[in-house]
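Continuing the batch. This is chain 6 of the set; chains 1 through 5 are on the previous pages. Same settings as before, nothing changed between runs. Recording input and output for traceability.
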Amino acid sequence: MKNNNVALGLLGGLAVGTVLGILFAPAKGCETRKKIVDKSTDLAESLKDSSGKLSNVISQTINDLKNESQQLLGNTKEIIKAEIANADNLKNINKPTI
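Output for chain 6:
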């Protein structure tokens, strides 16, 4: 979560710095507008790529956690079955013989 905030802060700062740099650069209005459009397009593509990568990481993490939890559940079921069998054995051992 903290890394995401840092990344968003860096991207926001980069965008603001780029726009301010273009606006204060000595160039014709049409050139400045074209530069703003180009930089905006580049930034949008960069954000799209970053969000796609983040989405992939989140999906993979969810799948890993799902698989791990299913494995733990399976192991827990086996342990419980074994303990029930041990308890049944103890009951049988402690039954009085007539």
